[in-house]
Every structure is written in structure tokens, then in C-alpha cells.
Amino acid sequence: MQSILFMNAMIFDGTGREPFAGEILVTGNRIAVVSEGKERIPHEGATIINCNGATLMPGLVESHAHLSWPSSVGRIFEGLMLPPEEHLLVTAHNARVTLEAGFTSAYSAGSLGTRFEIALKKEIEGGYLPGPRLISSSLEQGPKDVLGVPPAESNKHGRGVEAMRAYVAEMAELGVDSIKLLLSGDDAFASGASQNLTYTEEEVAAAASEAHVRGLWLSGHAQSAESVKIGLRHGFRILYHCSHADEETLDLLEAKKDGIFIAPAVGLRYSRLYEAESFGITREVAEKMGVYAEVERMQKLYPEMRKRGVRVLPGGDYGFPYNPVGRNARDLELFVKLFGYTPIETLVAATKQGGELMGLEVGLIQAGWLADVLLVDGDPTKDVQILQHRERLLKIMKNGLFIS
Ligand SMILES: [Zn+2]
Description:
By secondary structure, the chain is of the alpha/beta class. Helix content is about 30%, strand content about 20%. It has twelve helices and 16 strands. It has helices at about 85-100, 115-125, 160-175, 200-215, 225-235, 245-255, 265-275, 285-290, 290-310, 330-340, 345-350, 350-360, and strands spanning about 5-10, 20-25, 30-35, 45-50, 55-60, 60-65, 105-110, 135, 180, 215-220, 240, 260-265, 310, 375, 395-400, 400. The strands form three sheets. Strands 1, 2, 3, 4, 5, 14, 15 and 16 form an eight-stranded mixed β-sheet that branches. The protein has a five-stranded parallel β-sheet with strand order 9-10-11-12-13, covered by helices on one side. A three-stranded parallel β-sheet has the order 6-7-8, with helices on both faces. Helix 10 (about 330-340) crosses helix 11. It is globular, with a radius of gyration of 21 Å. The site of zinc ion has 6 residues, from loops.
């Protein structure tokens, strides 16, 4: 089996420890040995990579991926929908862009094609197309006539308990890993919509119990406090945004912190505030969409979740024209800048905790773990912004193979 030795590295292992000098030996697709200090790893026959003091760290995890949202860095599409053939190809392109940005894993927060991610995941896992490890999702889905549901292929299910069960069963048959439901509206869809529940609790309960029986995970767009509580009551794996969470919701999150992941998806909000003017989102429009107020609330809320030990993960709705796929690492900067996370805490969220979200042995530099590794020019534990620069990612390894 092929072995690769990284020597002269500073290792950030994902646990939250400061980087330490050491070596790692990768054998096949696993990290075989991690050494520290002056200890040398026997490496007969191994290919040697001299890291020259660069930082070795786990690959990043994107917790709110939309590979089928078409825009990526250097390739902007105005809308979200394309003809299906183009759309699938663009989705595959975005998988490569995500991986090349250092994200070796991605949890999908919804697709725009029913089978896009199922097909794509097969190609990636077969080694035929480059892309991150993927938790594939069903469509970004809400009930009929709820504003904000993308137009094509929407309304895949009717209302009521039986319809929800049947929908989840159908998705399970197709082979998705995760069901995405819009549990609340969003102020960006219509003013005040963030406070609307889109499903009845009975409908959510039916979908959730069907998903649990079939071994599927659930992710939820949840803005209002009540929608977060519903997601918590019905065993959702990850809840997004949560920007109206109140004190009681925070208490519930804290009580369930070992069973839930939260992702604010702040990247999209930030870009709508400061970078979307040329796409028609002026200050006035952003205000109408409630973005200012939302970011302000998030700046109070997320430091509080951090204090309470809730697992809050980077992942920012990349794929919109003003927030393209490939800029995903910018979310880490926003955790530091807006939420008071230290760079190390942010990196732990994007690696170790991201690995926990994926349910895979990724996110740590640890013997036995899958070899998803970045070699970074500089020290991201001092400045997470360097991860946004492609040229600073000297090597990207996924599953023991270099992608660059
Ligand atoms: Zn999203």
C-alpha cells in the first residue's frame, strides 16, 4: 500500500490544541501514525513531503452546502435555475470548486434537482469526479405555495401526515442521506415570514419519524424560536440560522447540545449586506430583507451559544451570485469577526465538529482517521483568513490522495 510521510510540519490536529511540530504518515486512505517533537516515524518506501514548517490540519467541513446553487468563484449565474443538463454539470463543477477550496467534506442543506446529489455522490465516491465527501440531500423543500421555495421541482409532497411520510419514503428509496425541510419562512422571502411555521407539527413529526425509521437525517431551515423548538423536539440533526432563538430556545439547545448541530449560514447574510450592491441588493433592499436586523441578532445570539457549548458550525449558503461557491472559508473569518470565536475555536468547529456532523472519521489528525488533510502556508490558528487564499493551500489531500 502506498505511504506518504509529511515531515517538518506544524500540526493542528483539530482538537483545539495549539499546533505542535511533528510528522504524519499516511498509508492508503488513513492516517497511520502521528508523531510529535523529535520523534521520527519509520518510513521505508514512503513518498516524503517536506512541509518546511507549514501547517498540517484536517480538511474543512462545509455544514450548509448547496452544490447545485450555480454560482461559483469566477463563474456567476444570475438566477438559481438552469436547464437540467447544464444544472447537473454545473453542480459537479461546484463539487470540484468546493474541494479545491479546502473543503473535503460537505453536508448538503438542500438540492435543486431531486437526484443530482445522489448521482454526484456516486461519481465522487467511485473516484470518477472530484468533490468533497457528501451527505446528499433532498430538495430544498417546503409545503406548496410557501414563498421562497425554489420554483422548479417544488411541491413534491402534498399536505398532511400521510403525504409527508410518503415523501420521505420516496426520498429514502431514491437514496438521499438527509431530508431538508423549511420549518419556517424567512424575512428574505417576505417581510415577517421568518415568524411563520410552514408545516404543522404533526407533519414534521410524521416526516421525522419516517426519516428515523429509514436511517435518514434531517436538516431544517429554522428562523423563528418555535421552528427551532420543533426541530429539536423531532430529532433534527442540524438546524440552520435560528436567528430568532429566545432565552428558552437557548436553554433547550444547551440541554440537547450533544445531539444537535447549528449553523448560522452567516456568509450569505454578510454578503447581502456588504457585497451585493451590484446584484441589485442595495442597502435599502437588504434592510427590507431584514438582513441588518438578522446579523445584529446573530451577533448577540451566537456568542451566547458559544458560551453554552452548543456546536455551531461554519457553512454559509454559498452558491448565490454574490456569495459564490469556493468562498466557503470566509465563514471562518466571520465567526471570529462577528461572533467572538477565537481562530482555534473556529477551526475546531470547521474540522472536529464538522466531522461529528458528517458522522465520519474525519476532522482530526489522529492515527486511524481518514486522511483528509490540508497543508497550509502559514498558521491558520493565528489568522483564519489565510484559508481563503487558494495559493496558501499548498496541498489538499482527500482519502489519502492529493487533489493538488
Ligand atoms: Zn441554504
